[in-house]
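Hi R.,

Here's the chain you asked about this morning:
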Amino acid sequence: MTPRVIRETSHLPAPPDLVWDLLQRPDTLIRITEGWLSFRPLDLPDWPETWQEGAYRAALSGPFGIPLGLQILRVSFPPPKGDTRFIRDRGEGQMVRLWDHLISLRPEGSGTCYADEVAVEAGWRTPFVAAFARAFYRRRQRRLKALVGRSHRKNQ
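And here is the predicted structure, written out as tokens:
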């Protein structure tokens, strides 16, 4: 089956360097996905302080702690293009064969243009996973926007 691609974009009220610093931290992922997805590291006692390039095996849970199986997060930092920076997770798991997530951020006015683009492929479940991904990334961006706003006010 052909992967489905979902793209969501938001303006964040903080400079790109602050957003970039927040995205480097696994605890940001945990905060902005809380309630919908949770990731527990399997090969480490806890997540590292900052993401490093490489593969991370995690136990994935959905709402109410429903087990969703093994998820592999493959973190990389593609080279910047102009003033746009990227983080990529080319993940895969037991429920979803491909979860290729590219985050991009670039300056926009006094803040940051932030985008999530994710290609998902899950066999016959692909349309359902794609619908979930669209709602998930909309919510995730709202939570990230609130977190960024709090961090920016604290740093001023």
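One quick note: The chain has a mean pLDDT of 94.

Cheers,
M.
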